[in-house]
Each structure stands twice: as structure tokens, then as C-alpha cells.
Amino acid sequence: MNIGVIGCGSIANTLTNFQLKGKLNVTISYFYDLDKDSAIRLAKKVDGEAVESISELIEKSDLILESASQAAVRASIPEVLEGGTDVIIMSVGALMDFDFKDKLEKLAKENNATIYLPTGAITGIDAVKAATMGDIESVSLVTRKPPVSLDIELEDCDEKILFEGKASDAVNKFPKNINVSSTLSLASGVDADVTIIADSKVKNNTHEIHVKGTFGELVTTTSNVSSPDNPKTSMLAAFSAASLLNKLSNTIQIGS
User: Fold this and answer.
1) Is 110 helix (H, G, I), strand (E, B) or coil?
2) Directed axis angle between helix 36-45 and helix 10-20, to 10°?
3) pTM value?
4) In a 3-state reduction of DSSP, which class is residue 182?
5) Cα distance between residue 9 and residue 90, in whole Å
6) Which of 45, 83, 97, 138 has a Cα-to-Cα distance from 187 of 20 to 30 A?
7) How deeply is 71 buried, as exposed, middle or buried, from its count of CB atoms within 10 A (0-12, 13-18, 19+)?
């Protein structure tokens, strides 16, 4: 399976490193980025090809992984699905625009394509999905990040609440920082309550999930190391993309 990539930043860089180490079951062959130099750099790493357009990427790829931005999802993914090409979306926040999400689902069905959403930088998503077989009463997420990850400065040992509200609002105000809230909301079918805290006492990006329902109660905490290429991105997000790529060709499937 030949994989094309939209967005040649930290996630794509991590994936190419996995490919060089023989940790991927698939081949990332084609790269597209508005910054052509970034696409060329990654393509050279794995003896791939930097393409000139989304249409060329669609023509050459069996599956396309988006790792660019919510804007890139809105601009490019409809065309990918119209071409009947499967897609993995990392910038899940774009799908909190439910009209747009419905549009993508419609295009996927009409063109026999599949949309994949990795679990990203949080844990417990399989359990959350299972819980939807009953009734879910509440879903909340508290995210703590070092100030540098949120582009602010704080004194040592200080913390500041930057946001309290619904995931659908959080993804618009923090489009590069809180895709996890979208994944949680889409998995649960509930617009999650979100709190975002800049905390100078923490070194890792930390996400605490709390879900209540007829199944019982779920509490998880994930403390993620940031990508060395981008403090806004957790390494686990890139790992989840790699795991999903491998899962597509695994004979034994674990998890829902």
C-alpha cells in the first residue's frame, strides 16, 4: 500500500523515521506540503517523491494521511474523498463543524472511501466507544500543558486557566492544541466539557478524561512527551497514526 501525506511537519517526520527503522507495514511514498522544501526534505529521507498538487497525490496514493491543519482538512479532504481515496485525518478538530463532517461522510459513502480517525494523544477511546452502546451522562476533559506548548509565558510554579467550555468552541480557539477534545467528543457522541490550563509546573502535555454513563465511570490520565519538532504535538499522536497504518494490514485486529 502506497501512502501519501498532506503536511510534512512533526507527525510526518516521525512516521518517516519509523519507516526507516522498519516499523511500518506500509510505505509512505508521496509527500505534499504548501512549503515545498518540507515535502522535498521528507521525500528524500525515504526515497519518496514530493508532489506538486493534491490531485497528483490522490492519483498516486492508495491512502492519504492528513497531518497539516484543520484548514488543510477543509481545503483538501473533500477532493480526496471525491477521488475515492481513503483518508486518515489527524486534525480532527475540523470535524467538530458538524455540517462539514456530514459532508465528508456523504462524499465517502458516495465514492466508496473510508475516513479513519486515530485515537491521538489520549487513552480510553475504545472504552468510550463501547460505552455509547448504553447512555452517556457526561464527558469532560482537563488538559494541562507547559506554557510553551500554548504560546504563552508564566512565572515558575504558576498556572492559568485559558479556556472552559465545550469542545466545539475549544477547537476553534486552540486549533493546534486540542484535537484530543474532538476525538473524545466524536467517540462519545457528546460535545465534551473542556478545560485548558497552562501550567509551568508540568513538563508533559497531560489529558484527564472523565466519562459517566450507564456502563459506570471511566477516568484516564495521559501524560505525553512533546514532539521534539513541535511542542504543540504529543509524540503519542504520531505513534497512534503509525499504529493505525499498521493495523490496516494486520490479520489480528485488537480493539474496536
Assistant:
1) helix
2) 10
3) 0.94
4) helix
5) 12
6) 83
7) exposed
